[in-house]
Write a structure and sequence with these properties.
This is Putative quercetin 2,3-dioxygenase. It comes from Streptomyces aurantiacus JA 4570. One of its GO terms (molecular function) is dioxygenase activity. InterPro entries: Pirin, Pirin_C_dom, Pirin_N_dom, RmlC-like_jellyroll, RmlC_Cupin_sf. Belongs to the pirin family. With 321 residues, this protein is mainly β. The chain has a single domain, classed as Sandwich (Jelly Rolls). The protein is built from one helix and 26 strands. The strands form five sheets. Strands 2, 14, 15, 16, 17, 19, 22 and 24 form an eight-stranded antiparallel β-sheet that branches. Strands 3-4-5-12-7-10-13 form a seven-stranded antiparallel β-sheet, with no helix packed on it. Strands 6-11-8-9 form a four-stranded antiparallel β-sheet, with no helix packed on it. Strand 8 and strand 9 form a beta hairpin. The protein is globular, with a radius of gyration of 18 Å. The two termini are 24 Å apart.
Length: 321
């Protein structure tokens, strides 16, 4: 998914100097962003107060939207570099195309994982014949310097491992949760899990104390370490936890995001993650001149134009504002 803001501002991310090294309860409110004609997303990362959680650098949550009489998601071809995209659905379908030749319909609880490496372009759209509702999240994972020039690739994992208990069902999207590992390719110590809780369920989720964590609410009401987290909001939890108390006030769905704090300082501008202003400038020029990022074939429409770069210098900084 693209950052479609026409006035794209740089996000200065990464570095361990701003990691909260102890448990906290920091509730993040979303910024509402239009994505095409009929989809509005709630942007949780980057946030005014929090830029990253582990290597997770971008989180959009959307829906449930009634798109029965609407085109639904329509994101034209656009570029990425230096990151992975994670497409995750609770309802609906998204048709993915990219410049490696991938063509894949992604359905609920299936992992669509695109690794941009040095350069890739892709489009995302609701199929012409689609279900009534669209509900999901789009997330980006920053690639470390050692892997950000790799060849681009796309993975589709329709079956993912689960961790279950009475009233609790967790699908492991990326990384490892309680000894259960996702087949998705990762480049840093990380975890992403989709968790369903039955009304009244209480559990204590095992965590890695060296990771920092956040919980994104998708539906219902769940109390995370005593804090009610409602749909479209995220609770940042810091580091230093060995377990996380969860209690569902209703049937609820959440996403657990975590990872080892990302050591490198980054610049994230539009759909690019880099380390220097020169990298970002070159990536924008390459996209606008039709080089390096390849071609997305089969999409009915032209590619997105890149926004104008800001007049102020882009400098890599820390994880918080």
């Amino acid at each position: 998914m693209s950052n479609l803001d026409r006035e794209a501002a740089p996000s200065l991310c990464g570095g361990r100097g701003f990691v909260v090294a102890e448990p906290v309860r920091e509730l993040l409110s979303p910024r509402r962003v239009k994505l095409g004609e009929s989809t509005e997303v709630r942007r949780l990362l980057p946030n005014l107060g929090r830029r990253m959680i582990g290597a997770w650098a971008f989180v959009d949550q959307y829906g449930p939207d009634d798109i029965a009489d609407e085109p639904g998601m329509q994101v034209p071809p656009h570029p990425h570099m230096g990151l992975q995209t994670v497409s995750w659905l609770h309802e609906g379908e998204v048709l993915h195309r990219d410049s490696t030749g991938s063509l894949q319909t992604i359905r609920p609880r299936e992992l669509g994982l695109m690794t941009s490496g040095r350069a890739i372009s892709h489009s995302e759209e609701s199929p012409k014949s689609h279900g009534r509702f669209l509900h999901g999240a789009q997330l980006w994972v920053a690639l470390p310097d050692s892997d950000r020039y790799a060849d681009p690739k796309f993975e589709h994992h329709p079956e993912l491992p689960k961790v279950t208990a009475p009233g609790f069902d967790a699908t492991v999207i990326l990384g490892n949760l309680d000894g259960t590992a996702s087949p998705g390719t990762t480049y840093t110590p990380i975890v992403g899990a989709d968790i369903s809780l039955a009304a009244g369920a209480e559990t204590r989720l095992p965590l890695v104390p060296d990771f920092e964590y956040g919980v994104l609410s998708m539906s219902g009401e769940v109390h995370v370490d005593g804090v009610p987290v409602l749909p479209g909001s995220m609770l940042y939890l810091g580091c230093g936890r060995t377990e996380l108390p969860l209690r569902a006030a209703s049937d609820a769905g959440i996403m657990l995001l975590g990872g080892e704090p990302f050591a490198e300082e980054l610049i994230m501008w539009w759909n690019f993650v880099g380390r220097t202003q020169e990298e970002i400038e070159q990536a924008r020029e390459d996209w606008m001149t039709g080089t390096r990022f390849g071609e997305v074939k089969g999409y009915d429409g032209g590619p997105l134009a890149a926004p104008t770069l800001p007049s102020t210098p882009l400098k890599p900084r820390g994880r918080t504002r």
